[in-house]
Amino acid sequence: MKTQISKVGLIGFGKAGKAVASVILRSAAFSLEWIFRNKSNVNDSSAKEILDIESDDKALIRSKGDHSMKELLDKNPVDFIIDFSSERGIYEYGRQAGERNVAIISAISHYGEKEKGFLKKLSEKTAVFWSPNITLGINFLLMASKLLKAIAPDADVEIVEEHFKQKSGVSGSAVKIARALDVDPGDINSIRAGGIVGKHQLIFGFPYQTVRLIHESISREAFGTGALFVAANMTGKPKGLYCFEDLLAPYFKME
Hints:
This protein is α/β, with parallel strands linked by helices and 255 residues long. The chain folds into 2 domains: 157 residues, 3-Layer(aba) Sandwich (Rossmann fold), CATH 3.40.50; 82 residues, Dihydrodipicolinate Reductase, domain 2 (2-Layer Sandwich).
């Protein structure tokens, strides 16, 4: 029996977008139909050529200046739109996706209250997923840490996050973990060195022992595998607004 292939449209083609595109192009369960980017004059090229990956996917690159989202979705319909662009990107495709019941997967790190409200409104028409960090490992770490905190609420908790030298501010994922574990975000330990992609360590201190939970991103392709994990688990979901916890919770149920 032939596996049903889900069609994907990708918003954004920066460093993260390129890494995500490379993962989708190598997937047997998903087809990259097109990439929509703000840059004009892309000459209707293909991501396969740019990334030098052999694939049967169309992987068309279309620009905002030359194609409307309505035209793109009419000519090249998709099952999912995966967004790795910017906070404002949701306004470029949101309404068109909602009208066509296209599932939305957003990996934007920060949304303002206006954008969060817009996501909620879109979720009344289609399935919408949003996670500031779409890597599977970091979200597994968050779920596991919450479980351990529930078992041992009096344990000492230290959070250490490491990133590349140029990254400013405290990691948003570390802040999210801190809030989930009732740790003051001001107590997060931050390290900036070299080209570290991203590493988060949670240290639980018990009398006579410690437990360490560590997640380390080796490359940006982790964003792609995370996005496809979400897409696989969002397939068939009814309209609504989802987060990683909604998708991972069933896996944490013990028989």
